[in-house]
Request: fold
Amino acid sequence: MRVNRPLVRMWIISRLILSLLTISILTFEGAICAHAAAAQSPASPVASAPKPITDLAPSKANYLKFAAETEAMLRRDVLGVWFPRTVDHEHGGFYSNFTRDWQPTKSRGKFSVFQGRMTWISAQIVMRRPDLKEQYLPIVQHGVKFLSDVLWDKQYGGFFWGLDDSGQITPLYSDGKELYGISFGLYGAAAAYQATHEPKALELAQKTFRWIDEHAHDAKNGGYFEWLRRDGKVVEGDPDAVTLHSIPLGAFPIGYRSMNTHIHLLESFTQLYEVWKDDTLRQRLEELLALVRDKICVQPGVMNLYFTNDWRPIPDLDSYGHDIETGYLMLEAEEVLGHGHDPRTEHMARQLVDHALANGWDETFGGFFQDGYTFGKPDSKIKEWWVQMEGLNALLLMHEKYGRETDVYFKAFQRQWQFIRDYQTDTQFHGVYTLVGPDGIPTNDTKGQIWKAAYHDGRALLNVTERLQQLADAAAE
Reply:
């Protein structure tokens, strides 16, 4: 599980930093390398056959070996390339769009999801990497200032779905409010308070939760309405329409519930409950956990993607990445709630990972495919960066919980790590490719865009490094 105790974290990471000194990891190494290489014309990478892998035993030495490697990737391919170049000193917030060699491209404005995620990861670095605290603290404050002063609607409340660079409403995003984006604004603000202890950040997180509860919570059916007008009124869908309309820049059908929004509300409410033990928040968090586990997740370890407002599922494909991510998020929520793990939650979390391994796993290269059918072969064999990172995190979590009874998860973790290292990561300009084909060749080498922040890869590498260190500490010599 994720380490939440600051003193334990500091002790763990200080030991890890000492071990990393021998391999000279520098925080901005990736940025320096990318800048030097930018003068060259980026050549398309060519994939080679997957290298043979010798499975390593779950020993102290091997845990420490992988921990050093994942920490190196965190600093080189996430922090070193995103920061400080993403910080927008002219318009505020964070700039999102970058080419393979980390050159800025045409802006798409300031998207709520990206802004919340970059604030969140900056706050995590302040809390979990003591040697980088002073460097990232101003970045967290920069992110909160934009969320509070620009992205928050001062007239009606709630975060805008997105704005242009000057902070104005734009047709690209409309003036609507989407719970998915509002959730990430809450996520960033809550983590920022945890990192800075500045009241402004907590006040922003609290009023965001209250706005959500007032305008979007469904007291009758549970869960949340997702797409709202600027004034907070729910946008109703047409139940007789056979062609559904989606919100701007998102695959969220208007008038329906989505798995994606609800798992990330679970995530953001969990983050807020770590710092604010409010009774209503706890009730909503427990409600979300039960909805995700008992209605969104179903046997044999899959999740429905869309629902009517009374939670009748709408047929669609199974998303392997969301399955494995949700297994982690449910267990994280129960840990923060502090009442121990419900066997039903543990069972479903494991089933989600097991089903993805059985049906969405690439036996040739390693890694998880994009999506597929509940019973059958994958529909899309594209490898998305975030799916691979969530897979790395979930596989090690399953190994930590069940490694005494099976070696399946640790073997898969090693294959997953090999795939990320050898195929998803750009060794020339650093960072991770957006999409990689089934042959191991990138099909989209964009490094940054409004949906691709330092969040999935940053969180996974933070968690995995710390969990490996914990496993090493618990292992026999």
In short: The domain at 1-83+317-477 is CATH 1.50.10.10 (Glycosyltransferase). Residues 1-8, 10-41 have pLDDT under 50 and may be disordered. The chain is about 50% helix and 5% strand. The longest strand covers residues 378-380.
